[in-house]
Amino acid sequence: MNFKTRVLFSTIICILSAYILFFSCIDFFSMNRHFYNYQYAKLHTAYTIGMSSSSLYEASDTLLDYLQDYRDDIRVVVEIQGEEREVFNEREKIHMVDVKNLYQGAKLVKNVSLVLVFALLLLLIVDYKAGVVEVLTYTYKRFFLTFAFLICALCVFAFSNFRSFWLVFHKLLFTNDYYFLDPATSIMIRMFPEQFFFTLVFCIVGLYLFILLLLWFYSLYDVKKRLNG
To answer: Could you report the per-residue pLDDT of 138-178, keeping only the tens digit for each?
Structure first.
């Protein structure tokens, strides 16, 4: 295997690993019950909707279990403002079908990417042995600024006008308008107001950038160590 092929393989590994890492950061926060419960308490969500905290947690857990394919629907009945009723309406249910398909599709891509990364790493190890770390750090340094620039550009857009950012995000990912929910009739939109998603997005991006920076500093340290060694 020549040097160009090694760089090509390591480039593919870096790109796939960047996706795997990004999805893992999304998964870490978006499926984290503790994160949700903390945000509910901070935003006084249960009081705003008119339901008990336990009912709110039940509705929230139902959504997360559905997205993770642990259940087939999001039907849940609780007491809201003194009335026993189903939490989510038909429009919300249709939207969650789209969200689940998106999440499960992204998860499948992550799993396939993991297999490809391990396969390419194995090929590099067999061919290049001790030089694998060197070629990977060389490639990662070239791509780090691109990754960081794209993420920072998204952060600037989101921070300057989160509502527009969130709208563009939904228009790119969904082919219908079921994500437009009316706060007057939608419990879901009151469970997850703009401030909730603002915090969620910046927690995900913050963790992702932090890990990218750690890897970048390691790549610099590794190069410096090799030069001095």
So the answer is: 777 777 778 778 888 888 999 999 999 999 999 999 999 99
Distance, in Å, from the CA atom of 80 to the CA atom of 51, rounded to the nearest integer, reads 5
* β-bridge partners, 84: 79
Give residue 56's identity as a one-letter amino acid code. L
Q: What is the DSSP string of the chain?
A: --HHHHHHHHHHHHHHHHHHHHHHHHHHHHT-HHHHHHHHHHHTHHHHHT--HHHHHHHHHHHHHHHTTSSS----EEEETTEEEESS-HHHHHHHHHHHHHHHHHHHHHHHHHHHHHHHHHHHHHHHGGGHHHHHHHHHHHHHHHHHHHHHHHHHHHHH-HHHHHHHHHHHH-SSSTT---TTT-HHHHHS-HHHHHHHHHHHHHHHHHHHHHHHHHHHHHHHHHHH-
Tokens of 198: 């603002």
What span, in angstroms and rounded, lies between the C-alpha atoms of 90 and 185? Answer: 11
Contact (CB, 8 A) for 96 and 132: no
Backbone phi and psi for residue 78, each to the nearest 5 degrees, phi listed first: -140, 175
Q: What is the pLDDT of residues 92-123, one digit of tens each?
A: 999 999 999 999 999 999 999 999 999 998 88
Instruction: For residues 39 and 54, give the distance between their C-alpha atoms in angstroms, rounded to a whole number.
Output: 14
